[in-house]
Amino acid sequence: MTEREHEHVRVAVIGSGFGGLGAAVRLRREGVTDFVVLERADAVGGTWRDNSYPGCACDVPSHLYSFSFAPNPHWPRTFSGQGRIREYLEHVADVFRLRPHIRLNSEVQELRWDDERLWWEIDTASGTLTADVVVSATGPLSDPKTPDIPGIDTFPGKVFHSARWDHDYDLRGKRVAMIGTGASAIQIVPAIQKEVGKLTLFQRTPPWVMPRADRAISKAERWVHRRLPFTTQARRGLLWGIRELQVQAFTKRPNELGLVEQLAKRNMYRAIKDPALRAKLTPDYRIGCKRILLSNTYYPALAQPNVDVVASGLSEIRGNTLVAADGTEAEVDAIVFGTGFHVTDMPIAQRVIGADGVSLAESWKGGMAALRGATAAGFPNFMTVIGPNTGLGNSSMILMIEAQLNYLADYLRQLNVLGGRVALTPRASAVAGWNNRVQDRMKRTVWNTGGCNSWYLDENGVNTTVWPGTTTEFRQATRHVDVGEYEVVRAPAESPEARTGKGSKNKEASAA
């Protein structure tokens, strides 16, 4: 075994997207330099590395979709494309000197908690190591979900997911099927419509699409942001404040969203003149129940003569013929799945084995639940960034990530205060109490009452994804670790029972 295979670190971070790099920066700021960032790919960037499909861009304004501690005065547009965001993440890795901590091509294969040594044993594609604390920042948009369609194995053409785009495959002149109408699909459709021979969009549920207020940021604006950094922060603050004011409509008064629906319909009517096509594209659920999408080019692309919209999901494949649930058929040369990700059943959960020998996936079989969106009962010193019920329907996830990094920082401080070989594991009652409060607030939100079936809901119909409040509320809830919500676990040699020969480990009453 190599020296690295025997390595022990204070903290192991999984993933090098916004969550993982943000955690690494925060660790350095807290004086923790004994850490590694384990990345399965050959470069940093997370979902912004993986999603390189034509037209890929963010639907959150650039100055809000970036770290508060790493403002970027150089954003060229109000909404940035995938390439620019990936460049930003590479820049963060360089500026904050994170490269020495990053282990590329090191996919985590298993994490197993050692009850005796109070650390995590980590098997990766590049070797093994142990860590006192593990921070899982794999993100919910990291593992593509492709439906199991009868006949898919016999399809003679090209098949790929939007998050695994095959840039070597030439779409020009081809008959292409786009499966799905989510955030990726509405960017892909207008990006490829002009070059393909025929584009068939298989739509199970039409999305609500609002205009995208995108524009180039002028050289003068960028000059001001460079020379006067407070203007960048002011711009970010304004974007944040507007979205905070919108939250009430999503979480408490969904009926107030009717006016927004009218604006979305007007956006459609400007481009879609055919009444039959309008009918196909008009949602029958409250706007906001699914994520509101932004595009100025989606509807115009659908109105083009080489595009067909099949208002029914794909149900079967016979050779190169795709058959929809309503019997509509289309012959195609290539299939692009824009069918989302494993959000409520994250694959990393199958690889995390906790204190009782139970995997995180098994623990979450009845639904994901974590204390303050971060820690799960039975998994000591294990924290998830962008965990259960931390997603947003109208603002920037970077705000939530930074709030969880505050929680991580205080978590490590509490471990230092306790001293010695020690771990914190959330009380099951604390996790249940937090989750019950979140789910109670969820009952009147648009995501639960809007009449849709979205990826926010798990297989039991429970919303384990979205945060039912403002980012301010979440930041307050994660500002400090309440040690009373945790059990303190001591290493056997340090426990009172071990010293008196009465036991092998001790779970202290944290109030003691």
From TrEMBL:
It holds the Pfam family FMO-like. SUPFAM superfamilies: FAD/NAD(P)-binding domain. Keywords: FAD, Flavoprotein, Oxidoreductase. Residues 496-512 have a biased composition (Basic and acidic residues). Signal peptide: none annotated. Transmembrane segments: none annotated. It comes from the Bacteria. Residues 490-512 are annotated as: Disordered. Belongs to the FAD-binding monooxygenase family. This is NAD(P)/FAD-dependent oxidoreductase. The lineage of its organism: Bacteria, Bacillati, Actinomycetota, Actinomycetes, Kitasatosporales.
